């Protein structure tokens, strides 16, 4: 699983998504994160095929939405996603949110899809520790990935430690806090390292060992976000960024979802 990928949440199906994915692949990205709910899987698949890059060299993630959950429904939702992507398999399939009373049955379907070779890795998204513990009490295959909101204002240290102990790869969505990059410390470090604020934050994620999927549809921003492998933050600067934590969410709380 590549450490850096492109997220396409809120990218419009068609030209906007295809152009973003094409720009990312041209810039060297080899991971694209989509979902049934994003309604742009078709454009993602079209852009990957048009790139000429062999399918096996691009890591494709998609997710089952809340209204699609349940054992039978998840099987059908996955097959519908593959049809829209026009692919024979997905690299990673996730449960998008922990819908009470449904996520265990949904995950049982994911295990079967994995057994059948239709997906190469399975996991969850937006699961807190208690969700993971509940799921792991009954599942056959431990989730391989947990994709959550994580950034300097929401460092998720307890969840991070739990996932590391359990061998679950943590992945960050909304790593750039919806573009709210004007934190004084981040600006200071951008000047120190000769990088942009976004690059500092993405580098922080990578050095933590967190996979990250910044979303953008602008070619120049997509390229900028990929330029994070030629420098390293010093340990004291990593700690200073950690200390920015406010437990502040820009997205929904998994314990209070109503959609």
Automatic annotation (TrEMBL):
InterPro entries: AKR (IPR020471), Aldo/ket_reductase_CS (IPR018170), NAD(P)_OxRdtase_dom_sf (IPR036812), NADP_OxRdtase_dom (IPR023210). Residues 3-246 form the NADP-dependent oxidoreductase domain. The active site is at residue 38. The record marks 63 as: Lowers pKa of active site Tyr. This is Aldo/keto reductase. Belongs to the aldo/keto reductase family. SUPFAM superfamilies: NAD(P)-linked oxidoreductase. One of its GO terms (molecular function) is oxidoreductase activity, acting on the CH-OH group of donors, NAD or NADP as acceptor. It holds the Pfam family Aldo_ket_red. It comes from the Bacteria. Keywords: NADP, Oxidoreductase. Substrate binds at residue 96. The keyword Oxidoreductase applies.
């Amino acid at each position: 699983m590549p450490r850096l990928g492109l997220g396409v949440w809120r990218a419009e199906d068609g030209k906007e998504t295809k152009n973003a994915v094409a720009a990312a692949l041209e810039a060297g990205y080899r991971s694209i994160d989509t979902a049934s709910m994003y309604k742009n899987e078709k454009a993602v698949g079209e852009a990957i095929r048009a790139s000429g890059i062999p399918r096996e060299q691009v890591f494709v993630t998609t997710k089952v939405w809340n209204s699609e959950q349940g054992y039978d429904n998840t099987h059908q939702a996955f097959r519908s996603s593959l049809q829209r992507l026009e692919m024979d398999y997905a690299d990673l399939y996730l449960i998008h949110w922990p819908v009470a009373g449904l996520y265990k049955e949904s995950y049982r379907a994911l295990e079967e899809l994995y057994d059948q070779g239709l997906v190469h890795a399975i996991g969850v998204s937006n699961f807190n520790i208690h969700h993971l513990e509940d799921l792991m009490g009954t599942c056959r295959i431990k989730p391989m990935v947990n994709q959550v909101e994580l950034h300097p204002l929401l460092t998720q240290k307890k969840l991070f430690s739990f996932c590391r102990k359990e061998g679950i790869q943590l992945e960050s969505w909304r790593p750039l806090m919806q573009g709210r990059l004007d934190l004084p410390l981040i600006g200071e470090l951008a000047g120190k390292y000769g990088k942009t604020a976004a690059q500092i934050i993405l580098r922080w994620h990578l050095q933590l060992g967190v996979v990250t999927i910044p979303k953008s549809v602008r070619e120049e921003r997509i390229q900028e976000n990929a330029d994070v492998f030629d420098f390293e933050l010093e340990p004291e600067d990593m700690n200073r960024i950690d200390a920015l934590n406010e437990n502040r969410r820009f997205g929904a709380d998994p314990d209070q979802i109503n959609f």
